[in-house]
Design brief:
This protein has helices spanning about 55-60, 65-70, and strands at about 5-15, 20-25, 45-55, 85-95, 95, 100-110, 110-120, 120-125, 135-140, 145-150, 155. With about 160 residues, the protein is mainly beta. The protein folds into 2 domains: about 5-95, Immunoglobulin-like (Sandwich), CATH 2.60.40; about 100-155, no CATH class.
Length: about 160
């Protein structure tokens, strides 16, 4: 019996309280034991399915069936669950990191401020390596004329 694995993934994006699903698939050689799926979106959930496509599946289709003649599953639609198309599925999230949240001033004095924030959430295999705090002083007499002091260099912003 010939077995050809097929990899497919579904991308799920939450937008305006509804889910948009885009399904992509590719056929692999019968001896494939791994695949790299690229072109994905950061911090996005994917349902990944690896399906074995067997000769038995094609043999049980009626004579004259287009899929039986082609001996390939169509790439533009999902196959139905079938004993001759066994599959394993995993839900994965691509790596990425959200920005720190809730930045706030805890205390302020004439020459210092104390800040606090909520740590950013990380996704997938991403790991937070540190936090950088940067600051710049500025004075605005008018909204249309602000001076920002970066170290010893002054820059006018119009």
């Amino acid at each position: 019996m010939d077995v050809v694995p097929r990899l497919q993934y579904d991308q799920h994006n939450a937008a305006d309280d509804h889910r948009e699903v885009e399904t992509v698939s590719c056929d692999l050689p019968p001896d494939a034991t791994s695949a790299v799926v690229s072109g994905l979106t950061e911090k996005t959930d994917y349902v990944v399915t690896v399906r074995a496509v067997t000769a038995g599946y094609f043999d049980m289709l009626p004579d004259g069936h287009a899929v039986k003649r082609a001996r390939r599953l169509p790439v533009d639609r999902l196959p139905t669950d079938d004993a001759w198309l066994p599959a394993a599925t995993a839900v994965v999230t691509t790596s990425g990191t959200d920005r720190p949240r809730d930045v706030r001033v805890v205390t302020a004095s004439p020459d210092s401020i104390s800040l606090a924030w909520t740590l950013p959430q990380t996704y997938g295999s991403d790991q937070l390596q540190g936090i950088i705090v940067r600051w710049v002083s500025f004075k605005c007499q008018l909204l249309s004329s602000c001076i920002i002091k970066l170290g010893e260099k002054r820059q006018r912003i119009a």
